[in-house]
Write a structure and sequence with these properties.
With 70 residues, the protein is mainly alpha-helical. It contains 5 helices and 2 strands; from the N terminus they run H-H-E-H-H-E-H. A two-stranded antiparallel sheet has the order 1-2.
Length: 70
């Protein structure tokens, strides 16, 4: 049973990471402004959960550099 739990946890982690990794900056930057706003980021739940942490300059947007730290 313990092995089953570990396997399921690993699958869940891999699938959530893969979904986030598959989303690139240009796809999320819908308006082409060169930054990802909170409304643009809202389509990715994992990105939204980390948005404040990634927005290191606190301007309410993610630059390409800030996004690459995800």
């Amino acid at each position: 049973m313990n092995t089953l739990n570990k396997t399921l946890a690993l699958i869940a982690l891999a699938s959530s990471s893969a979904a986030f990794a598959g989303t690139d900056f240009d796809t999320l930057d819908i308006d082409g402004s060169g930054a990802i706003s909170q409304s643009e980021a809202s389509v990715d739940a994992e990105l939204m959960s980390k948005f404040t942490e990634l927005d290191t300059d606190g301007n309410g947007e993610l630059s390409k550099e800030e996004f690459s730290n995800a």
